[in-house]
Amino acid sequence: MGIPMNDNIHAPTVPSGPTSGGVPRDLSKLTMVDLMQEKERIEAELSALSAVLTSHGVNMNTSLTTFDGFPRDDIDVAQIRTTRARIIHLRTDHKEVMKHLEKGLHEHFASLQRAQAAVAAGGMNGTAVQRSNLGESSLSDAEIIGTPFAKVNSVVPGSPADQAGLKAGDTIRSFGNVNWINHERLSKVAQTVQQNEGRTIVVKIVRKDGPASNDTTELSLELIPRRDWGGRGLLGCHLVPL
């Protein structure tokens, strides 16, 4: 909810002019680690800018004029327009970063498959496997695809999440097609849930074998979002980003 327009002295603000620190033009020269960091930076700024709009009680589509075409005097129209323009710009940058990130992942796994095929054919005798544009801070396969990005904070008994087998403390590696690369601060998880009401979503989790144990078990659960289970929401669980 937005705060009252006559009491917004603590509302977040954004610069009125162009901001620095935009996406580097030649993304193809960035390592996967650099691309990940750029993705996180953009998403953090988008989240902050969304908070600015919310503080004014508007969104990207709210009209900034009165019914007879004059600028509204109950909101800071200039700041909102600047914020919206920056959001549009950042969304474009985010798409570019994600495109290069996904391309890098495809190239990385293609190189791994070629290397594995060569080993199977006896053409390689070592463990050296070419890494695709990962740089010195190389990421393993599990880190790239299966890094947990959210934790189950609580599960309501009898809920769809409970029936699927989710437990508090589980960490989520993938939620349908959503993973740590594309979850966008869990917004994609919410979108997946909304789009799959009544349909099965495969959720891959990591669960500790005991409170004092460092051993974990990987599980693949089938979750069906639905409204008629007697509680709030479609899942009946609370997720927090890691």
Characterization of this structure:
This protein is α+β, with helices and mostly antiparallel strands and 242 residues long. The protein has 2 domains: 27-106; 142-241, PDZ domain (Pdz3 Domain, Roll). The protein has 5 helices and 5 strands. The protein has helices at residues 32-55, 77-120, 141-146, 160-164, 187-195; strands at residues 150-155, 171-175, 201-208, 216-223, 237-241. A 5-stranded antiparallel sheet has the order 4-3-2-1-5. Helix 1 (32-55) packs antiparallel against helix 2. The radius of gyration is 22 Å and the shape is flat. Residues 1-20 and 124-143 have low confidence and may be disordered.
Topology (elements, then pairings):
Elements: H1 32-55, H2 77-120, H3 141-146, E1 150-155, H4 160-164, E2 171-175, H5 187-195, E3 201-208, E4 216-223, E5 237-241
Number of helices: 5
User: Uncertain segments of ≥5 residues (pLDDT<50)?
Assistant: 1-20, 124-143
Structural class assignment: alpha+beta
Strand order of the largest sheet: 4-3-2-1-5
* N-to-C span: 25 Å
**In CATH terms, what is the architecture of the largest domain?**
Roll
CATH class designation of the largest domain: Mainly Beta
Taken from the alpha-carbon principal axes, the silhouette is flat
H/E element sequence: HHHEHEHEEE
- Please give the radius of gyration in angstroms: 22 Å
Family: Belongs to the proteasome subunit p27 family.
Organism: Aspergillus novofumigatus (strain IBT 16806)
GO cellular component, one term: proteasome complex
Domain PDZ: 152-209
